[in-house]
Amino acid sequence: MNPDPLTGTVKAAAIQATPVFLDLDATVEKACRLIGETADQGARIMVFPETFLPGYPFWPRDNTGPSREPILKAFVSYFRNSIEIPSPQTDALREAARKANAYVVMGMSERDREFGGTLYNTMLFIGPDGAILGKHRKLIPTYGERCIWGPGDGSTLNVFPTEYGGLGGLVCYEHHMVLTRYALMAMGERIHTAVWPAHRFMKDIVDAAVRQYAFEGQLFVLNSCGYMHEDLVPDSFELKKDTYWDAAGGTGIIGPKGNYLAGPCYDEEAILCADLDFDQIVEAKYIVDSVGHYARWDVLSLNVNTEKLSPIHTAAGRRGGNGAAFALGSENLADLARIASKQDEATRDLIAQVIARIENPKPEPEESTS
Question: The whole model's pTM is what?
Fold first, then answer.
């Protein structure tokens, strides 16, 4: 890792492309090709649009009225073409990222692997070695999206360390969740990936949101927007004529002062690249540092719940009085270790002791029988 991520430059890319309609494997194949093409242009960080795999569900979703059966059929098809993590499809993406030697952020409709019945609007983060860094599930599906996706939780609200600084991302209207924005900035985000379906009526909203995010956080934003039109939808899709296929794009790359370094691009497929010069972050923070000298933590503060939610909590996971007060899984311990790495030496040692005690609890003393 670069010991000072606020030096040097890196080429990054935001991709605006159309999926192969409701065909997961074909769209994964296209994504892998685009990863290679983008890497050929020198990009080492790249982002794809919201739910690029297998595409955004623009059609009507209200399961009532005369369209009930076509809506149900559309959801079943969408469910079958959503992606599990891990899966052969994510293996293909990981291999493409490894060959490209690039960080890849992929928007996808994720099919929950643990419980099996719910979809999530997810961003998958893959490293240049092909390893999955993690994922982010949209915290609140917007409006009619709640007919398709479930809500995420704080366990996937992450900023991933890279040699270029913290890499994070949010989905669509999460950019209007003020506390969520600040949480990522406070976690050390330097490069933010933003993904949208990009309805045409959202052009001004998207533009304002991503430019404000860059200026507010003094960071770079790679903004990847959906692009879709009616000609790409097969006539066999029963809701084709009931849908306004209006995804116009709006992809761009924004600097820490809120200015476009590339784009915005509308009404075409495109790979937009820009060199991110980290001196620009230093210059922006000279005036305003939202998580430093221009913050008042003594007046305002933020609590973040990073617990992974579960449908059941059992007493069996609890330990005795000299063990952990509650059960922690490996993912939670990894979160603790990641938090510890950013602290001073004394705090790191304290957290290490807590982790060791959880992983190796002392046995309960036997009760005396005398």
Answer: 0.84
